[in-house]
Design brief:
With 356 residues, the protein is of the alpha+beta class. The protein has a domain of 151 residues: D-Amino Acid Oxidase, Chain A, domain 2 (2-Layer Sandwich), CATH 3.30.9.10. Helix content is 26%, strand content 28%. Helix 3 crosses helix 8. The longest helix is centred in the N-terminal third of the chain and has 20 residues. The chain is globular, with a radius of gyration of 20 Å. The two termini are 20 Å apart. Flavin-adenine dinucleotide binds next to helix 1, strand 2, helix 2, strand 14 and strand 18.
């Protein structure tokens, strides 16, 4: 295929994955983003992709998303494995399953969630109930939960390292920082106070900044970075909680990510005491080693969501818009992009990502 000039509005998760992917196919890529540069600042203003915990949970997310999201998620886990293998930085990725825990008082809520998970399509992994002994063998550091289930095949990815690697290893891409795209039109990116630029094809992947082209809203999420030497956790863990979807995600070294609130607000101000206390006390109730953990960072961001909380791809001549990845962006991005690129005839389905 002839090399195209491609403009991308947004250098978040989708923008970086697109730029890296399309640059490998020889296209001329320009990316525009209001951020100061490619590095994370953790000030709540940048891409949500930096704040995410990187849970790849098609099964657990069935609690609040469609079967289509789950199917895209299972495909994406396989695609992330290939992407990570093709990146020289090799960001951490694992798909050894995750755990769902419930305290005794939350057993009925757990049954409701499990009923939804059981409605999963045939041929995909099912939640497996664990005895106390089985849980102890898998994750000895966990204590205090009355009920536990293994969600086989679920994964996790190091978001910050992957965002950075996709930027650093996107060969020949022209990154334009401190450039806000005011409008995305077929074959054209429009800027405030600067001439618009023409391309063969443009992508609108501005996340929560995608209004008014799409009716996207931001949904506030708060997350705690913890350092807990010797915490011993190897798999992501979710705890059923009356108010939050609490999860703990182990990262290489001694770091654990603890998330996350979900608040219908576009408030990007720092994490509230209420959210921090509730998340941390819930996590401590199943991982006693957290008592001596150190709080490295409190982070906040907006999840880009459409009215139905489902992802949306719009393909028109000269223009592709992808948005609404909500709380599943890392879970969905590779498969959504594969489908979008095929819809605009920019990729061959069987092309391997890893160089021979
Ligand atoms: C607390 C939290 C935890 C999360 N945890 C998970 C998780 O465990 N698993 C998971 O799968 N997902 C998770 N997510 C969701 C995931 O981060 C998002 O779905 C994903 O980042 C969306 O990708 P995106 O590229 O559409 O948007 P973003 O990553 O937000 O990127 C959008 C980019 O567009 C830029 N932009 C905005 N306006 C403009 C403009 N006018 N012109 C040019 N550029 C613009 C922004 O600066 C940004 O760089 C979490 C999100 C949050 C907030």
């Amino acid at each position: 295929m002839a090399a195209l000039s491609i403009g991308i509005a947004g250098a978040g998760l989708l923008g970086r994955l697109l730029a890296w992917r399309l640059a490998r196919e020889g296209h001329r890529i320009s990316v525009f983003d209001p951020a100061l540069g490619s590095e994370p600042t953790f000030d709540g203003q940048q891409a949500a992709g930096y704040t995410a915990a990187g849970m790849l949970s098609p099964l657990a997310e069935r609690d609040n998303s469609s079967a289509e999201v789950a199917a895209l998620g299972w495909r994406s886990i396989a695609l992330w494995r290939d992407v990570v293998a093709a990146l020289q930085a090799r960001p951490h990725f694992a798909a050894i399953g995750s755990l769902l825990l419930a305290h005794r008082g939350d057993a009925s809520a757990a049954q409701r969630v499990l009923a939804r998970l059981a409605a999963e399509a045939s041929g995909t992994p099912r939640a497996q109930a664990l005895s106390a002994a089985q849980l102890g063998a898998l994750e000895p550091a966990l204590q205090g939960a009355a009920h536990a289930w293994l969600l086989p095949g679920e994964g996790q990815i190091d978001c910050v390292a992957t965002m950075q690697a996709l930027h650093d290893e996107a060969r020949g891409v022209r990154w334009h920082w401190q450039r806000t795209v005011a409008q995305v039109r077929p074959g054209e990116l429009v800027f405030d106070g600067a001439p618009s630029q023409r391309f063969d094809l443009v992508f609108d992947v501005r996340g929560a900044g995608g209004r008014p082209a799409l009716p996207v809203r931001g949904v506030r999420g708060e997350l705690v970075w913890l350092q807990a030497p010797g915490h011993g956790l190897t798999r992501p863990v979710r705890l059923l909680h009356p108010r939050h979807r609490v999860y703990l995600v182990p990262r290489p070294g001694d770091v654990l990510l603890l998330g996350a609130s979900e608040i219908e607000s576009e408030d990007r101000s720092p994490v509230s005491l209420k959210s921090a206390v509730e998340l941390m006390s819930a996590a401590h109730s199943v991982l006693p080693a957290l008592a001596e953990a150190r709080i490295l960072r409190l982070d906040v961001n907006l999840r880009p969501a459409l009215p139905d909380n489902e992802p949306r791809t719009e393909v028109a001549p000269g223009l592709v818009r992808i948005n609404g990845l909500f709380r599943h962006g890392w879970l969905l991005a590779p498969a959504l992009l594969e489908d979008a690129l095929q819809a605009c005839a920019l990729t061959q389905p069987a092309e391997p990502l890893v160089a021979a």
